Amino acid sequence: xxxxxxxxxxxxxxxxxxxxxxxxxxxxxxxxxxxxxxxxxxxxxxxxxxxxxxxxxxxxxxxxxxxxxxxxxxxxxxxxxxxxxxxxxxxxxxxxxxxxxxxxxxxxxxxxxxxxxxxxxxxxxxxxxxxxxxxxxxxxxxxxxxxxxxxxxxxxxxxxxxxxxxxxxxxxxxxxxxxxxxxxxxxxxxxxxxxxxxxxxxxxxxxxxxxxxxxxxxxxxxxxxxxxxxxxxxxxxxxxxxxxxxxxxxxxxxxxxxxxxxxxxxxxxxxxxxxxxxxxxxxxxxxxxxxxxxxxxxxxxxxxxxxxxxxxxxxxxxxxxxxxxxxxxxxxxxxxxxxxxxxxxxxxxxxxxxxxxxxxxxxxxxxxxxxxxxxxxxxxxxxxxxxxxxxxxxxxxxxxxxxxxxxxxxxxxxxxxxxxxxxxxxxxxxxxxxxxxxxxxxxxxxxxxxxxxxxxxxxxxxxxxxxxxxxxxxxxxxxxxxxxxxxxxxxxxxxxxxxxxxxxxxxxxxxxxxxxxxxxxxxxxxxxxxxxxxxxxxxxxxxxxxxxxxxxxxxxxxxxxxxxxxxxxxxxxxxxxxxxxxxxxxxxxxxxxxxxxxxxxxxxxxxxxxxxxxxxxxxxxx
Length: 622
Description:
alpha+beta; Serine Threonine Protein Phosphatase 5, Tetratricopeptide repeat; Immunoglobulin-like; 23 strands; 21% strand; globular
């Protein structure tokens, strides 16, 4: 296709008159029809771009098809992409994959990378990380720098290859050396955080600057953040704002968000709520969830008059011994739906608090959770002192487990892409029940992004403590509406861990309610949970003197009457058990399995009916 590109440049100079266009079309079509693949591709490009003649995607697709049949692998790649998106041809995923495979086997490494992306994201094929990694490696070995960058991301997250931050950084360096600016940014992140390589903010600065000057706007955003914090460079908030604005104007939503934050706080610019709201709006419209989440608070500050019933205040989070500021601490006011992260000075701003007494909770990595009461009105500012937690290894990685559900909190969502966006490691996909597991997470503030086709993406911040596992519950909506923060159960229950609960939530079928779900659903009786379990119901229990029992809606040959599920409480099978006898507040977790889904360790211990089991794990047992 290099020849085709040269021909197009020469050709476009001859397109001043319609007659010239018609002559050119006839010339190239004639050459194409006699077997000149380059002529087919040149004419296809003219019709695809509308340069020199009316744009005609259907005609372009036909010509790319001719070029492909004549052995032009780039023509096969472009036609495959047209089938993938349905441009000029009906959308056909199978045909798209077939053309990309043909081109990749023919030595077109762009096709290898594109095919790898289809397998990584499930674009018309089943997700296959091993296959994606192999294709990215093929593209990378063929000299395609973007293939090295994508393979580096997989090496970081352990998708298709073993997790290997050092290997990932090598691939990012290879991508950057090959001219892929996204690879330079990823390499800079590694140096900035010391993940996969020795920490060196000065090297990160050089890489971000190089990427930014080359037009990679995330490089400009990260460069601005270095100047904002003074990490590896002199602190310069005005220069940071300039870089954020540059990235925002170029369409990078994170640049718009950081620009809005600068105007909101008056960092590097005079405080300007109107400009802050406009910047958050641009970030939101570009698809950045945290921009949308920021809008209500910023808009209120812009639009609402002064109200004597609300009071703006700010606070600071600091070490209980030294009173040194603690950055990246989370401050929650759960009753008001407020959740903030402290800046490098340990500061959080709490605007428009209603008069009264409000629960406030603060947490940071390596510190114990502190709760207290904030009185409004009171002092204009407040100080939260955190005490060090007793941990054997402050650098021990933590774990995040949990479940993603729909907006109502009922149906688990599968195939949700879950990633820790402020780390070089940490990415997974939720299973059929919406369960997920993220291992090896560096302690500290973790920003978790949830993405799924057809649902609004969302990003939430949580604290990962050294060597601990936290259990979270996140909801997603198909509409861009405010959602409550994800619910966090601070520490994974050792009792449930010992009894295999967490392993079953990821590895088996059935329905499970963990501590986070029970806390969120607030059932009055255990029967209220059963209404959310497919194909079961509760008989009796609503009237005085009746025994509640869990019954499967299906029937088996072993049962003449109702198919009653066996009940196990803290691992012990119960006889003639009243299901609603235990208050939900005393239950740590609950599991329901039917038929062949019953875990093997319970199959031999259960009744011969084969109906299923209910496992109740109480807080008393814990």
